[in-house]
Amino acid sequence: MKKVRSYVLADQDMAFLNHDDRRGVRLELEYLKAEALLREHRVRHTILVMGSTRTARGDPWYRIAREFGRIVGRSRGAALMTGGGPGIMEAANRGALEAGGLSIGMNIDLPVPQRANRYCTPGLSLRFRYFALRKLHFLLRARALVAFPGGFGTFDELFETLTLVQTRKIRPIPIVLVGEAWWRRAVDFDFLCSQGMIRDADRTIFSYAENAREIQRAIQRRLPPSETRIKPRSRRQAVTQTGATAKRRAGSSAPAPRAAPRGPRRARSAGRAAGSRAQARSRH
After folding, report:
1. How far apart are CA 89 and CA 51, in angstroms?
2. Contact 91, 215 (CB under 8 A)
3. 29 pLDDT exceeds 90?
4. Which residues contact 96 (CB under 8 A, 6 or more apart)?
5. How far is CA 64 from CA 67, 91, 144, 247, in A?
6. How would DSSP label each residue in 165-178?
7. Could you give the CA distance from residue 40 to residue 124 in angstroms, rounded to a whole number?
8. In terms of pTM, does the model score above 0.85?
9. How far apart are CA 61 and CA 50, in angstroms?
10. Which helix (H) or strand (E) covers residue 272, if one does?
């Protein structure tokens, strides 16, 4: 006689949840869990860094990514976000964490497991089943994308972001390619333009940089004044800003000046009008 499995509640039944028909539910849950964690940590803006997992710690690109991570970490204006793996992603996360900033890693489950780096803020080393949801969270809060030399994964994220900006599906964000000589050899954007595959204006969607400070400046040049700037504030600036804010608040809470009373003026005007009418009657 076939043994009947006892009933398991739907939210605890992994066989039920993993069925193809429940893919929509899994997609929603994956979005909601990551969103809840990011909100819990008050993550509003991010700087996204992409690059090869194969970059060794002694590589110059690793050093630059780590230095840029420190710049973002010190700025406190945005969290540093990567794919959470080794190589360039580890370097950027490492620099941000060393500087005391928020460091986020978004790993992906693969047939060959990817090793998550250990330089993420506790609670912010996330894992995804679906590339689509991972990409969504990469860009939902992104204020800039920095792409270091990399392989298929780096190209995937870069070209998806270029396409979304080109087609205005997202607001334009600074896109910085690190290592102009490397990128010009890897992708011939000039050839694409000469063949009519992209417009000349499309080449202005991105810019190049060679070191961490140049990346910082490239982001600042392209961000509108209302957006997050990757620039550490000095203590003097912070005090000045605090004082100005206090003055604005004090000014807004002060009672509005009272209007001058209109009664006497109206009475005088009425008196003059009455006198004029009386003089007119006496003439007649």
Report:
1. 6
2. no
3. yes
4. 69, 70, 72, 73, 79, 80, 102, 103, 119
5. 5, 8, 17, 41
6. HHTTSS----EEEE
7. 10
8. no
9. 12
10. helix 263-283
